[in-house]
Amino acid sequence: MTPRYSAPRDLVGVTAALADGDGVVVGGGTMVVPDMTHGRTRAAALVDLSRAGLAGVTAGADGVVVGAMTTYTDLVEAGVPLLSSVATGITGGPQIRNRGTAGGSACYANPASDVPACLVALDARMRLASAGGKREVPAAGFFLGGFRTARRPDEVLAEVVLPQLGNALLGYVKFKLAESSWPIVTAATVAVPGTALRVVVGGAAAVPVVVAVDRPSAGSGDPAWRDHVREAVHTALDAAEPWSDVLAPAAYRRRIAPAIAARSAAHALEEDR
Amino acid sequence: MAAPTQPDSAIGGSARKRDGAALLTGRAVFVDDHQPTGMLHAQVVRSTVAHGRILSVDTAAAEAAPGVRLVLTGRRAAESAGPVPYFIDPAARGGNRTDIRCLQVDEVVYVGQPVAAVVAETRRQALDAAALVAVEYEVLPHVLDAEEAMLPDAPRLYPEWPGNVVMHNRYGTGDTDAALAAADVVVSGELRIGRSTTSPIEPRGYLASWNAAEGKLTVHASCQNPHQMRWMLATSLGLDEGDIRIVTAKVGGSFGLKMQGHPEETLVALLSILTGAPVKWIEDRRETLMAGARQQVHRFTVGAMADGRIVALVDDIVADVGALTAQAGWAMPNMSATTLPSGYLVPDCRIGLDIVVTNKPPVNAARGFGKDAAHFVMERAVDIVAHELGLDPAEVRRRNFIPADRFPHRTSTGLNIDSGDFVGLLDKVLDEVGYAGIRARQGGLRHRGRYLGVGLGFELTPESSDSPGTFVSGFDTTTVRMSVTGMVTVLTGVTSPGGGNDTGIAQIVATELGVPMEWVELVQGDTDRCPNGFGNFSGRSMVVGGGSATLAARDVRDKLALLGSRMLDVPVDRVEVADGVVRVVDDHSRALAVPDVARALLTRAFAVADGIEPVLESTRAYKPGNIDHVPDEFGRIQPYPTYSSSLHAAVVDVDVETGKVVLLDYVMAHDCGTMINPALVEGQARGAVAMGLGSALSEQLVFGEDGTLLSDRFKTYLLPRAGDVPELRMVHQVTPSPFTMHGNKGAGEAGVGGAQAAVANAVEDALAALGVRVRGVPLTPPAVLALIDEAAAR
Ligand SMILES: Cc1cc2nc3c(=O)[nH]c(=O)nc-3n(C[C@H](O)[C@H](O)[C@H](O)COP(=O)(O)OP(=O)(O)OC[C@H]3O[C@@H](n4cnc5c(N)ncnc54)[C@H](O)[C@@H]3O)c2cc1C
């Protein structure tokens, strides 16, 4: 059966088209279109965001506002903290970076992807819109499990708000099995001067996991600090739902997560820049 | 190599691929580009259970779906088509067989086995309707692991067999027990080679057009062996061979996968006959990835003397070939066994092989053809011996190589190696990779927490095989035809999967005939036009295609020379044909253009060619030497004329926190005898090495417990990308074969096993300080980390 298709001209049109709760949102389409081709997604109605004016990055008083349809390429050009460097490393190359969106990635909520943990690290706020109104959900509360988010079927992610980071330092490390692989474990570090490091680990559990890590006093190679990171990461992971896929079992993800977290911290602290 | 003054089109020159421009600009026509009027699309309905009895197939909903022309069940197919004949019949080699059907009738033995087919007006309609075919199964117990399949109470794939073993064979000569008892050290180990696959960029596909009025069938196929396919379709469909035409002109890579014998070949032809319309089926990537290329377990014991000389080799191989196939893939493990002693002087060998079926899709023929496994295992064994004796692995190889002056050399398993200089390859590769320097740097780096390793892998690649009574043929046939305008058409029985042998053959013909290469047109892969031949496999195309083209070109050249000499009024031994003219050897000013001589012969035969048969065409077959099917006193035959050789060195850096292996450098020293076209040789070698590197580090077909393939896309089946592979550096050595026309040997397969071995040995070398012992491939990061943890726990 061919689904109903609409490409509303604005957000109001989008929320109206989604009001029945049976619509599938098409962002850049890099995931949802192949999923339909292979029969993994069956839709009664398709709501295409490409004409709804949801792309673009604007700086506002309370932070940077990233429209849900902002592509990876747009992010690179706009120089959005953390997300722009993540965008350059998206495996799919120009085709995917020119179409894929960070908003789409967030809504897809694949644990083995870059964006979710970054949004949590940045303390992003997810602006959801429906015919009934708008609401804001913190990124940390948005990701509920593997491929599950707080977004209701009648809602669209309209924008992502990234609060001002001040003079925080950022670090990011992604570990893949090979160039073509999904991310296996990622770690984003936000280092606000004078405070402990905030490291958010992705891929090691069904949702991004926040870990508070002390700053290394004797460099990131210090075995004692490494032990501390391992303990902190493992404690955080113990409280989270484990994640496995065909590329790597949960035990492996857990095993390497501390090393990736430590590298990301070192990256933020510019040790290896 | 070519002297610098020679043109690129000469033998030894790196002429560019003739179809390069067409390929790069998207003008090359592949099977999926053919769109005859009225064409329909087929979709295969595949088993969803790993083992089961088909209780019912309900086609009603599919038949009622939009655009559907035909829904075919296995039962109905069996009324119109017989079994698919084997490329290599196991029964002919004393093994167990089963009838291979284009659609299963009663039982299925793997997830993905064809059970029904849908033909519709569009591909989309066929896909949708295929999902509506309801197949009910009585689920039977299944077995996915070959060693479990060998247990007495294991589920049986084919109830009429005594077990799940296709065949058990023994190979080798000598007294290994005595040799092991006399050895200074005895080492043993177990190695597992994971299931990987070939992944050509173009999947399989067939377009069959049945002409009911004439009773003729034309099939465009992405296939390596058009003539064999014609015979196979004639057999399975009960047609006359003469009523079938197979065209395989452009193929987007095949690597063995597209050797004939797949159920869909008969199926698509049958669908066209039943619908009376052209029917196309193009495989989906998920279907391509079902095909395995290799999966084996080896348990080996090696005895060596204190100086490193290996005196005995015992190996027991369990080869998992998935379900049985009519394709050649099930036979590959035989070559794992016969190639095992490789290029080493190992006097006593005892190798046992069990070829075992499991409830997984078939292992199909794949580049390496089982020889890759032999190199992986033997090269690991050599490194373990070196480790045990405290000797450098390079030195142990040097001490065991068959010396360059001892060829031809017959190995314990019966292979008669034509020629080689393996020590020469070793010296070249050590020099190029900077072996001594790496060894010197390793210790210092290790103190800084870096684990750098270097590994070697030797590979002996038997090529151009001949298997009596099968369609694995060691000869081939070519026609060279010159027209009245002097243009040359070469029609050959060998086909090109995209590697460029058409360019190489054109170079040979141009050189032998003495005309510019642009005058030469090549026709391959058309059973109505080309002489009977066998397509491409086993590195044969330049050996037998090139050899037969040489013979035929020389015939035509001789005719030109004879007539030309008469027209120039000199004795024939005073003329030569070169640069497009027939000329007097010591007076180039006296010359006739080749087209003028051709026209004279073909239009003035009675006037100028008295006593000369006026035909500028020759069809010749070429049989290389060194093939011997008379069993010797040990029952061994010698099926390969040539043996290419290569030595691989990999330099790796292992991240001990994640298990990730990063390739820093790679050198292949390669010897395939005379190179007809070095650029094409290097292209093939790089591809084979990349395939070996992928299967060594990241490629792995993963099945769920229910037998479903989980790694069914390129995001889960990880091929190496440019960023994973360093520049693959090539060094050449030329040891001509005494048994082939130009001294060339097979080129195209060498690299898979050598790369696997070099990487595995490099990883073990990098992690030597941690006591890691590599036990298989692929060495994915989780696998390497598990090895590190295991070593730490010891
Ligand atoms: C070849 C390839 C390589 C890739 N490499 C990487 C990589 O290295 N790292 C990585 O993290 N990811 C990678 N990805 C995934 C990529 O990040 C996502 O495909 C992309 O970001 C999804 O964005 P999209 O706009 O195309 O989403 P779509 O495919 O349009 O949608 C994805 C899902 O989100 C929903 N959706 C989309 N937008 C909205 C919205 N605004 N509101 C509500 N719901 C919405 C859709 O309904 C669908 O369920 C890769 C993908 C491919 C195909």
From TrEMBL, chain A:
Domain of life according to the entry: Bacteria
GO MF annotation list: FAD binding; oxidoreductase activity
A Pfam family hit: FAD_binding_5
Keywords: FAD, Flavoprotein, Oxidoreductase
All residue ranges annotated as the FAD-binding PCMH-type domain in the record: 1-167
Name of protein: CO/xanthine dehydrogenase FAD-binding subunit
InterPro entries, per database record: CO_DH_flav_C_dom_sf, Diverse_Substr_Oxidored, FAD-bd_PCMH, FAD-bd_PCMH-like_sf, FAD-bd_PCMH_sub1, FAD-bd_PCMH_sub2, Mopterin_DH_FAD-bd
UniProt signal peptide: none
SUPFAM superfamilies in UniProt: CO dehydrogenase flavoprotein C-terminal domain-like, FAD-binding/transporter-associated domain-like
UniProtKB/TrEMBL annotation, chain B:
The entry's keywords: Molybdenum, Oxidoreductase
Domain Aldehyde oxidase/xanthine dehydrogenase a/b hammerhead: 25-141
Cited Gene3D superfamilies: Aldehyde oxidase/xanthine dehydrogenase, a/b hammerhead, Aldehyde oxidase/xanthine dehydrogenase, molybdopterin binding domain
SUPFAM superfamilies: CO dehydrogenase molybdoprotein N-domain-like, Molybdenum cofactor-binding domain
GO molecular function (one): iron ion binding
Highest rank taxon of the organism: Bacteria
Record keyword Repeat present: no
Matching PANTHER family: ALDEHYDE OXIDASE 1-RELATED, XANTHINE DEHYDROGENASE
Full protein name: Carbon-monoxide dehydrogenase large subunit
Species name: Umezawaea tangerina
